[in-house]
Each structure stands twice: as C-alpha cells, then as structure tokens.
Design a protein that fits this description.
This is DNA repair protein. The protein has 858 residues and is α/β, with parallel strands linked by helices. 51% of the residues lie in helices and 14% in strands.
Length: 858
C-alpha cells in the first residue's frame, strides 16, 4: 500500500563481512536481513571500506525484498584530510544503479584496485575527498561525511585559521554531503551555530556504523520521511529540516482515531479502488472536472458535514464510498473540518461571519474568565437593576405619600406649642385638686411610666409576630445548589461529598437557627409578662388610685388631659412619619447609588477586558476595544422624551455629549429627573419603564480588532484577508480532526500562496492530517506534500481502467517514471512527479526551484 512519503527507519552507514575490519565473518546475508527486519529498518546502505561487493549487495537486495527492506549500494572512503585522524566519507548510489560500471570507475579513478590495496594495505589507503566526491556525484550518488564529535570527522579540519574555515565551508557548499554525527548534541550544535554561520542547511543523520550484525544497535533511530528509494533519499537534500529526524519514536504521530487511513471507492462505472492516505499532507490534483473536488466533498458528506449542499450531485454516490480510520474503524459521523471552495473568501467578505469567528476565539482563549464573567454579569445585573429601579419608584411614591400625611397632620412646631399650652392649663387646674404637689408629681410620673411600658408591650407583640415567622424560614438560599452547579462537578469524590456535606450543614444550621429564634421568642415573651406585671404594680399604688379618682372628678381637667393625650399621639405620629420619611429617603438614595454603580459597571468591566484581553499567535493579533453606541442612545431618548422647546432639546444634547465621559453623574441626574417627573415623556411612555429600559441597557459593546503582521484586517487585500481567515479557523482551534480544503489558492493572491500558504501548510500538517485539492504547483511541491493523489476523468485521450468515470492513483513527490506512450491507461503511464509537471501549471519550474534552493540540480 502506497501512502507517499512516510517516516521510516533508515541506516545509511552499515558494514558487512566484505569490510576488512568486520568483527564476525561467519555472518550470512540472511542473518543481516533478518536482524535489520527485527529492528524495523526499512532502508539500509551497504558501505563497506574501500569496496563495493556487487555479488553480496545484489543478494542482500534479493533477500531484502522478502522483508520489505530496500538495500542501497555504497562505499566508505578514507580521505587525505584531517591530519592525524583522517576524515571518512561515504558514497551512496541508487538501488537500480549499474554497479559494475560504478565500481569499475571508482576502482580506476580512486586507486582502489586489488593490486593497489594489496601493496599499500587497507589502513593506508586514502582517496582525494574532492576528486572522489565529484566522481560520486557524477555517477549519480550522494556523499555523506563524518561530522561533529564522531571519529574521523570533518571537524578534524580545525577552525584556528580563517583559510581552513573557508576551505571547510567550500567543501560543504560544493558537495552538499549528509552530515553523519555520532552524538545527539551535535545536531543542535550544527543547527544553532554552524548552519547560521554558513547560511545554508544540510541533512544531519546518525547511523549504526555496524561491524557485527549480531551486536546491532544504534544510539538513536534515524527517521527519514520519503519513499524507500534512492530518489526518496535525495529529498532530504531539498528538505533537510522537515524530512529527517533523529529520535526514538516515530515523528509527527497523531491520534489514530483522528487520522483517515484509507478510502475505498466501489460504484460500478463511477469509481473503484483504494486510496491510502498519509497522516500529514495529501494533495489532490488533476485537470478540470476530473473528480478532485468530488472526492473531497464525498469524504466530508459521508461524515455529515453541512457545508456540502443537499442538492450536490455527489450525495447520490455516497453509498459507493467507505472511509476507514487509522484505528481500524469505519464509523460514520466523526468530526471532519471541510472548507469548501471560496469558503475563506466568503467569510472574509462577510463582517458578521468574521466577527463571529473572532468572538468564538476570544471566548475560547479567555483563560482568566474575564469575558465569561462579563457576560454573566450582564445577565445578572440587568435583572437586579430592573428590580432596584422599580423599588426606587415605589419608594418615591411612598415619600410623596408620607409627605402628604405629614402636611395633613400639621406643623410639628405648632403641635408642640399646643401641647405645652394644654399641659400648662392642666397644671393650673391640678393645683385645686385633692392631690398635694408631691403626690401630683408622683402621679404624673406613674402616668408616663405606664404609657412607656404599654408602648414596649406593643413593640414586643410586633417582634413576636416577626420571630414566629423567622422560626420556620430557612436561612439558606433555596437555589444555591443550582446556582453553583453542584451537579457539574465531575470528580466522583467531589460530587458526592460536597452534596452530602452541604445537606448535613443545611439541616444542622436550620435546626440551630430555629433554636436561636425560639430563645428570642421566650425571652421576649417573658419580658412582656414582666412589663405587664410592672403596670399592674404601678396601678395599685395609693397615689396613682387617688390621682385617678381626682382626675375623673374634675371634668375640665379630664377634657384637657384628653386633648393632651390626643396631641401627644399626633406628635408621636408626626415623629414616626418624619423618621419613616428619613428612612425611606436614605434607602432610596442608597438604592440609587447601587443602580448607578451597576449601570456604570458595564463600561468599567468592559474597559478592564480591553486592557487585559489580547491574543497573539504567529503574527496574528486580536485585541478588544470599547465602542460607545451614541447613535443608539440618541434614538432611544428621542423616541421617548418630549423634546418640544429649546430647553428640552438642550438637555438631550448635553446628556448625549456628557454620557461617555461622565456616565455616572449623567445617569444620576437622568434617574432623579425621571422619578421626580421633571422630564416630560411622549404619550404611551411611563417614567418607570423608560428608567428600566435605560439602565438595563448596555450602551457599550466590545469590538475586536484583527491585525496580521502589523496590517489591520480591514486594510488587507481580499487574498490576504482570506488567508488570515484560514489562520483564524485553524490556529486558534483545539481540534485535531482531519482538515479538508478545496482549492484555497482561489481565495488568495500569488504572493500569499507562496510566502504564506505554503509555509503555513508545512507547519500545520505536522499537527493535523490535511487533504487538499489544488491546481497550484507551489502548494504541492513547495509545501512538500507527503502524498499526491492524481485524479482523472474518462475521456477519449484520457482512458481509465474499466472505463470508470473517475479514477485515482497516489504516491510521493519523488515517485518518478518517464512517460510510456504505449501505456493503455493515462494514470499508469508515468510517475507522480511527471503527472504534476503535466497537470499543474508551473509544475516543472516548482520542482526546479525546490531542487535549486540549496544549489542542487536534478
């Protein structure tokens, strides 16, 4: 099964018993293949010292096929460079190379004939690095060289002289060898120091350098992402950063349940066959109407994606496609992201859709919970403001009512004067009574005491009524559990224990609360009984009885005392009304402040979000700004306020101009004017409703500013906007499911395609599987697509096997085969590389640019 370029284990420095210094000459070729297979090696280069053992290599190639191991021929040389420790280098050749020709030329030009080896001895043989490397490349091979801290390394050429540094750099830039290191720390050293200095990169490899297969081991595995061919190996020269890894585990591994393994097509006359997918980038190419987009839409629609229209013809053929995932399951309904043709452009063109995406990103990335808290605050505070505004207007009605009652009861100063006058008259009349002055004083004191105690009894009765109600009411908030979502706790221990402990605490507290209130009831009742007893005691005093008899016998005094009692009651009512008026005003003013604070908190919290919430990633910045909706506020007020007259219009103008800068004082002024009825409203509107609408409305909104590489989204070209939308959709998503993209280049300009889209896809394919339809060669070649799917529609000049309407083949970029003009079917007539060059405009140029990037030519 062909999935294009896959990560596999390669060993590019390996010896056999044909090397003069091999440790165990009893080793057989079959032993070599068996043990390499056990170690999951897919490609091995035979690099014996100073020899290409053609017979052995051909036998190993034959045996390797049985174990799916590709054997590349090679040879290790010892150079004249390096001083006391000569530099070793290797030539590796294609698996299809004519070894007789290659070995004959190497023997002749590098002085490696049997006679010369016998005369000098193996350990004294040296070959010119430059001459031999030129010959290797001329013969179609690649050069590798020992590097880093590995023995016989190129670092044997010291850097103590500038001329030596320049010579070493010249060797690397001329022959572009693969650098074989011996330690993992050498990799980072080259990437961080050497490559920046020489201003180009080379592939770094680590190999076994094995001299005894029975002791086969490697310090780390060498992973190469390529077809298991010499042509595949060459790709690491063009992509030295992305096609080679030295590590224990397989690179770029993804969750097996989030990678499509294969697609099976099975519908007579329409399509048939299997397409095996790569976990990274799969590109679908073909001419017009060859089934590229149809295949992509079929994958999306099969898993229920709504972006495929219901009337799309492909829905008639969904029974002819099945999709298997890497976990071995073909279950439908798994998540797939599908971006249809022009999808990004359509979103970029629609500001509402763009804002919706940005809004969702902001919500997802609001790690501090500011936005969530803000939205929850808006919902909660709106209801509370509405209730408080209603209460304020009720209080204002109470104030008007109490003020009216006060005016009806008369002026307090007048009542006090009248009461003093009556008391003076009563005193004059009492002079002629049977009571002595001392008795009269005591009698008056007793009367006052009884009056106060009766007042205390009334207060006790009132409290007892309230306490009896409190006793049966829980102090716990009934909705506490629901409000704090106990049932959302997911950890079993938390969910069970907190619920149980809360219920236990509630029962305990309610019982304790009932006991506390009962104690107050008993204490109050006992105190009330004592007060009643005190009154009876006073009334039994002789002086009190004598005073009552004297009082009842004097009709004029009795009338005056009656008036005194009446005026005292009136004064008590006035004092109570004044106290109540003061209390209501205090509550009203406090509630007004709460309303204003709550209303102003809309802006305050929003400003806090603007100052703290900013998201940046890979050149893309999302910031939050505060917008005052002055026009909306103006329309609201103009539709409700009676604006006849210059003074009213001036009031509205001042309110609108001042609100944003000083919304607190403006809000207080507006609310007071409403409940004091200083503002005239249009017919049909009531002050209470207008106040509730005004103060529950947030006259501000959070708006998002989107920039990429310093350019504001609104100022970008349509192509760049579409690319930014793609980044928004993918960079800020936590999804790991496959991405299906249909011809993204249609939404982008050329500069964005090469400089932005290609680099972006190369990064993103390491994180998620991508299946992408394209007609642009740069997207396929420059993005280094691991798997290229070529689509074809049956036609007179483009026949398919069995006359199928649509047919597909797939493979790696490096799969190459010259066009066979006699081939019966178009897809099998040439290699993947050749199809790309034929189908995609600029395909051949794209390959050339890729291969010339590091100075190579095919």
């Amino acid at each position: 099964m062909n999935r294009g370029s896959e990560w596999r284990i390669w060993d590019l420095h390996f010896h056999t018993p044909s090397s003069y210094d091999y440790k165990d000459n009893s080793v057989k070729n079959q032993d070599i293949i068996n043990i390499l297979s056990e170690n999951n090696v897919s490609v091995v280069a035979i690099t014996d010292h100073h020899v290409i053992d053609i017979e052995r290599i051909q036998d190993l190639q034959r045996l390797g096929k049985e174990k799916n191991i590709v054997v590349l021929p090679g040879i290790e040389f010892c150079s004249e460079l390096g001083g006391s420790e000569a530099i070793h280098f290797i030539g590796i050749f294609p698996e299809t190379a004519n070894l007789n020709t290659i070995w004959t030329k190497i023997q002749g030009q590098c002085n490696l004939t049997p006679e010369e080896i016998d005369s000098k001895g193996q350990e004294r043989i040296v070959c010119s690095f430059e001459k031999t490397s030129s010959l290797i490349i001329e013969l179609g091979g690649l050069v590798t060289i020992h590097a880093g801290k590995k023995s016989n390394s190129i670092e044997g050429i010291k850097n103590n002289l500038l001329v030596k540094q320049e010579f070493k750099q010249q060797l690397l830039s001329t022959y572009h060898p693969l650098l074989e290191v011996g330690k993992i720390e050498d990799v980072e050293s080259y990437k961080s120091h050497v490559f920046p200095n020489i201003q180009f990169s080379l592939p770094i490899i680590m190999c076994s350098d094995n001299h005894n297969i029975r002791e086969y081991t490697t310090k780390e595995k060498l992973w190469i992402k390529a077809a298991t061919t010499f042509e595949g190996l060459k790709q690491i020269l063009f992509e030295p950063e992305d096609r080679v890894r030295i590590q224990t585990t397989k690179p770029d591994e993804k969750n097996i349940y989030q990678v499509i393994d294969s697609i099976t097509l099975d519908e007579n006359e329409f399509w048939h066959g299997n397409i095996f997918l790569n976990p990274n980038l799969n590109t679908i190419v073909g001419g017009r109407s060859t089934g590229k987009s149809s295949l992509l839409k079929a994958i999306a629609a099969k898993h229920g994606n709504k972006e495929v229209e219901e009337n799309d013809f492909i829905r008639q053929h969904l029974n002819g496609i099945s999709i298997r995932w890497q976990d071995g399951n073909d279950q439908l309904g798994r998540e797939i992201e599908y971006f249809r043709q022009s999808y990004m452009h359509d979103i970029a063109f629609d500001s509402e859709k763009t804002n919706r995406i940005v809004d969702n990103i902001i919500k997802d990335k609001d790690e501090a919970g500011l936005l969530k808290a803000y939205n929850e605050h808006l919902a909660e505070i709106s209801k509370k403001i509405s209730e408080d505004v209603f209460s304020v207007f009720q209080m204002q009605n109470d104030i008007v009512s109490v003020t009216k009652s006060l005016s009806e009861k008369g002026n307090k100063d007048g009542v006090v004067k009248q009461l003093n006058l009556l008391k003076s008259k009563a005193a004059d009349l009492q002079k002629g009574s049977e009571l002595s002055p001392e008795e009269r004083m005591s009698f008056d004191a007793y009367l006052h005491q009884i009056q106060e105690k009766k007042k205390q009894i009334a207060e006790a009765d009132n409290d007892l009524g309230l306490l009896n109600k409190m006793k049966n009411v829980t102090p716990f908030e009934p909705t506490f559990k629901d409000k704090w979502q106990f049932n959302q706790l997911s950890f079993p221990l938390n969910q069970y224990d907190i619920d149980r402990l809360y219920d236990d605490l509630k029962v305990k507290t309610e019982t304790e609360w009932g006991n506390i209130v009962q104690q107050f009831i008993e204490k109050t009742s006992k105190a009330k009984e004592q007060i009643s007893t005190d009154i009876q005691t006073i009334m039994a005093y002789d002086v009190y009885k004598k005073g009552i008899q004297s009082f009842e016998g004097n009709k004029e005094l009795k009338d005056i005392n009656g008036k005194i009692i009446e005026e005292e009651k009136n004064l008590e009512i006035i004092n109570g009304l004044q106290s109540r008026l003061e209390h209501i005003r205090k509550l009203r003013n406090s509630l007004i402040q709460k309303i204003i604070d709550a209303h102003c908190s809309y802006k305050m919290m929003a400003r806090e979000i603007c100052n703290t919430l900013e998201i940046s990633y890979d050149g893309l910045d999302i910031s939050v700004s505060l917008t005052f909706h002055k026009k909306e506020l103006q329309e609201f007020l103009e539709s409700r306020l009676n604006l006849r007259g210059n003074e009213r219009q001036e009031y509205l103008k001042t309110l609108l101009n001042r609100y944003d800068d000083d919304n607190k004082s403006c809000s207080i002024d507006f609310l007071k004017n409403l409940f004091l009825e200083n503002i005239l409203l249009k017919n049909g509107y009531e002050a209470l409703n207008v106040a509730i609408e005004f103060f529950t409305r947030n006259w501000y909104s959070l708006d998002y500013s989107l920039t990429y590489q310093g350019d504001a989204f609104v100022n970008m070209s349509e192509g760049k906007q579409a690319f930014v939308i793609l980044k928004l959709l993918l960079d800020f998503s936590d999804k790991k499911c496959p991405i299906l993209i249909d011809q993204p280049e249609d939404s982008l300009d050329n500069r964005a395609i090469y400089h932005e889209l290609v680099a972006y896809i190369k990064r993103k394919k390491k994180e998620r599987q991508i299946i992408l339809v394209t007609h642009n060669s740069n997207v396929v070649v420059s993005a280094d697509a691991e798997n290229v799917i070529v689509a074809n529609q049956e036609g007179a000049d483009t026949p398919n096997l069995g006359g199928l309407k649509f047919q597909y083949i797939n493979g790696a970029l490096e799969d190459t085969k010259e066009r066979d003009e006699n081939a019966e079917y178009i897809l099998s007539s040439q290699g993947i590389r050749e199809h790309i060059c034929d189908i995609l405009e600029g395909g051949r140029i794209a390959f050339e640019k890729r291969e010339q990037k590091y100075g190579f030519r095919r």
